[in-house]
Amino acid sequence: MAYQIGLYLIYGIAAQGIGYLWGKTGVLPLGQSLFFGIAAYVTAITLRADGNLFLNLGLATIGLTLISGLAFLLATLVFRGRNESGPYFSLITLALVMIAEQVAGTASSLTGGFNGISGFNSLGNLDPFGGFYYVIVAATVTVSLLLFILNRLPINLIVKSVMDNEPRMQLLGFRTHVIKGAAFAFSAMIAALAGGLFASHQGIVTPTSAGFALSAEMVILTAVGGRFHVLGPLIGAVIVGWASAELRDSFPYWELLMAVVFILVILKSPGGIAELLETAFRWVWPKEAKHVPPSVLVPKIQFNKQKKPLRFEDVKLQIGVVQILNKVSFEAPLTGIISIIGPNGAGKTSALNTITGNLNVTGGRIMLGESRIDSRPPHRALANGIGRKLQVPSVFFSLSISENLAIAMMAGRLRLADLFKPATYQWRSKSLFDILSNPSVPLNEELTEPVKHLPQGHRQFLEYAMTVAAEPSVLLLDEPCAGLSPDETTLMTELVKTYQSETSGLVIVIEHDMSIVEAISDKVLVLHLGQVLAFDDYDKVRLNTDVQAVYAGGTK
Amino acid sequence: MTLLLEIENLTGGYKDTNVLFDISVKIGAGSLLGVLGRNGVGKTTFARLVQGGIKASHGDIRLDGQPILNKSAHARRRMGVGYMPQTAMVFDDLTVLENLSLYPNKKSLDYYFDRFPRLAERLNQPAGTMSGGERKILSFVRTMIEDTKLIILDEPTEGVQPENINLMADCLRERVAEGAAVFLCEQNLNLLSEVSDWFLGLDSGRVIMTESADTTNRDDLNAVLSL
Amino acid sequence: MSPVLLLNLAWQISTLALIALGLAIVFGKLRIMNMAHGEFVMIGAYAPVITSMLGLPGWLQLPVCLITVAFVAFVLERTIVRHLYGRMFDSLLATWGIAILLREIVELIFGRSYQSVSPPLSGTINVIGVDYPAYRIAVIIGIFLGFIGFSWWNTRSKMATRIKAMVGNPELAEAIGLNTARLSAGAFVFGCCTAGLAGLILAPTVRIEPMMGLDYLIRSFFALVVGGLGSLEGLGIGVSIIAGTQTFLGAVSSQTYGYLAVLTLSILFLWLKPNGIHSSSR
Hints:
The complex is a heterotrimer of chains A (556), B (227) and C (282). Chain A is α/β, with parallel strands linked by helices. In chain A, 53% of the residues lie in helices and 12% in strands. Chain A is elongated. Chain B has a single domain (3-225), classed as 3-Layer(aba) Sandwich (Rossmann fold), CATH 3.40.50. Chain B is built from 9 helices and 10 strands. Chain B has a 6-stranded mixed β-sheet with strand order 6-7-8-3-9-10, sandwiched between helices. Chain B has a 4-stranded antiparallel β-sheet with strand order 2-1-4-5, with helices on one face.
């Protein structure tokens, strides 16, 4: 019995790694037995070569580090420059594990071919039916505790935010491909740990340990057990393992039943068994309402806040056959509010996209002081002091308002150590505090509901607050007043003006409403068909005959 | 004026949460109803309940005397209900022309291309690559050319430059003159007061004002928006 | 290149193209990562087994095949798959469950042992200097003509655009009058039927057993990955590369190396050119 439970726990540990990656980042690893299998083979080979406990433990540590390093490299390479947790990565892991299975079956001299490697004792010569069981239990407890602790640390919020809205994370300065790579490496390390235990426990390793079927099996265990909870995959592995051992022989429809249960879990209960258990648990012991902890003063912004002039030099942007920007040149002042106006399709949003690197220019360059800033990945914009609010409010929809703000506060301020300090959650800067303490601003921090229930207008304020939290010296706002009522519009313009005068930085606003443009602008940039039509004071622009022609004659 | 749409005691929302309560309103053919209210009062929910994207929990909706409450959105469209959503208002992966020609249209495209020439210039460009305002215009034109008698528009002018808003107002007046009823959810008071025959004010999911345009002034409208 | 190898290649390409066409619709258009696609090939291959079990005449094989596959696909679409639109990962997992389910059901009915059937056409024809089975020649020509017909219809009908519209924005598609439930069910059933038809065609040339589908699934998946989703040209290119690599490496060295080459090729494409060689989307 302990022998069987030990095996289920080993699969459970590997499944916990899958659950972490899949539940938190949305990346589904289909080839986790690649790492499980490599570790199992390496363990088998070293155990067979030498039984010295300390030597083996040392080699295991090195092995785990190497395997997670390999996984990190693989994932960051694939995720680099691509904003999806997508199916393609899953398919790559699937193809890799299929290759591994073939290689393990073919390279007989190293792996023993289809018969595998056997004839070695377990780690420290412990009895797989007795003593080694406690090693497995200890490993299970350690991994679970580690995952529980990680869940309570700021790093958890960061990982969740990457899954929720990757482009927004990049504009907040986070290198998202590295974060996803690290999460993948962590789950690979857990799989490798399980693989090592497996070899030591079973005393035999065959190509199926590195195979596609095992990968699929572990994903099923994770899904059925519940990928969002630390213990879910473990529960899944033990329950399914035990039930299948009990029923497989006496009940001919067992496999059929498992398939149906699996489909039902995917369709109806993505939280799996763990969620059902938790609901039952909460029914008996209701959860206490979360209260927002007191604020903690923030550390200094890490990036260089020295103000430098922003300059477009003959910037061109072509997408397909369409010339979006055609030799745009202008130099923004160090401080003040610039409004960009122009007919729909003039290239206003695209101009901001070239500044943040969401679009790469096809000609010319954009300078900030002496350094060229165009065509860099978006996560580097904030380091240059550039903050961006998007046209359609882009916030973290599955998180609460206070979580959204907490992430925004970390932007530009976070050091590696802060990822592991709970106090990081409570950071609040003065600029953010000013916004939140304004009674007219419709943001209630106490709300624990996900912000996807917020109406569009409130999301505008939230995204604005998140953008200024990092105190950018160049603030880019794309139609911040769209969808706002007249009163809310006045409030938003007041906020923008206050921010600008307090930081004496540069704000660039795209706006259609001429009364707003008149009220806030120090200068107005008029774009038309991707070219600068005028760049001057509001009054002068209004009297400019070219501008009048464009606006009076429709868009012809 | 013939009655086109009758809504009685309409209550509904998302999943278990009702957002709108007990709304009753009638729209005649050839008239425009301006629906106004602050953010989050339920304008979008109202539009989608009438359009069929979400199901009402109770109440009654009749189009030309026929009950449509239990009809799907596509069935309502075939009965003559057109809809322009607030967000995701075009098919991003499709070209401008494909967006406009998925379904047989009543009106000629050229008529609208003359007014919004930017669309004609971008016929073979994927709609998702256009700017926010251009997508609004594309969606608006798509709604105009359809063979519909009730047109529901949810914030059609967000991000659209003032000149194009004026053109949109002209198009709306034409469709109303042809006998269509229009249901316009809007924050832009200029447009609303220019084209509406009736106003419906909403707050917290309930009707707080139903007035004819003749008896309403700008301050009344502002009052609804800044409660 | 020997004539037999060339004909084998044509046979491999045409049958794989038929299977991949169905997957291109279900995965490429509906965005359902159908891991049970191979199981529809398997069900189609069992159609001759069914007709001979029931003592039905041979010409009923085709209707029995299409009706069985269409029925299974329709029931699955209405009960399970329709909840999966827009949920790519869930679609992958749930259809993986469907694949296990279908394999188990077929195993319960027909057992695990291999079945085999004889081709409706026997004998050989002399083509480009070699005697080649007449049945295979007929299939190659038939599929070729079928593809010409399909691409002719595809360029004229708005069906592909409508499906693309529906998948990109289902609520708007409903709002402009598309019956999305009928459209998606129709496309899914059509996609599964091409797989079933391919199964029927392959039946006389392979061992029929419940596990046979996986290999077809993998090859057609990777053919789409290499060729790119969204166009018939891409499909043709992808299928030719995958079938070609496997046929040649299989002939000159071993099946294992052919398989490894296909997998390596797919990884390189997934990583460096995720939209494939030929893609309609920018």
